[in-house]
Amino acid sequence: MKKTMICAAVFLLAVATVLTNKAYCETPEDYYKSGVELYDHNRFGDALTEFEKAIKQDPGYAPAYFKTGCVYVILNRFQEAVDYFKKAIELNPGFSAAYQAMGEAYYSMGNRELAIASFEKAISINPGFFIPYNSLADIYVSDNKLDQAVPFLEKALQINPYDYYANYKLGKIYLKLAKYQDAIKYFQRTSQINLRFAGAYFDTGVAYNMLNDAQQALLYFREALNQDPSYADAYYEAGVAHNKLGQFKEARENLIKAEDLYKLKEDQIGARKAKEALSKISR
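^ thats the sequence. predicted structure below, dont judge the formating
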């Protein structure tokens, strides 16, 4: 009798556990969480299925519409993405991240004005959200309106000084504007935040080369090559710097390496550039 009661209790407990787990797994929040995990592991089709299940369970669950839109952006299905972002915003008018993502979708569709309006709306809802400032800056950079991009990047960095990409973009703008000392400042900040970002070391070297400080430039080209040994442009610029310093053997070695890497990457313009630089080195 005692054993029968124990078995019955264990059975009831098992049934309760199964029912509880089933209910738990079928909540929209858990389908959403499962979808986010799949999304983070680049399993976008599976993630989409989970988000759809969340929406089916709760048609008013705004986060699931938002993440569905994010999947469609990755799949380059931008109009569908916009439709889902709009639904997320309809359900949650203060959803600043949805406005930001919708702006990215609009921009990918070539609709610059709606993209700008979406980014500006994201900022108006949450002025401390730094990503829309970066996005607006990107638009003005693509329009070659560099001076108009600068205030947005400065604002983004005021909010998040450790955004290495915003620091880097600001450095690139100052490099194009021939404000080399300002460029160096932001490239160096980028390197401090992301020690392995070869591009920041390379561009610091380029700025020093433009200031005719070839010795300092070489230090940064070497560090760029430490991070990325296949960086053809770094070998090319190092060759140019060595040539300025009268170090012709080192200049030839770097330019030959650059030419070989350009050829390997099927970059004919780069290969011709390196070959031409080689022909001008004093023997």
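The chain has 16 helices and no strands.
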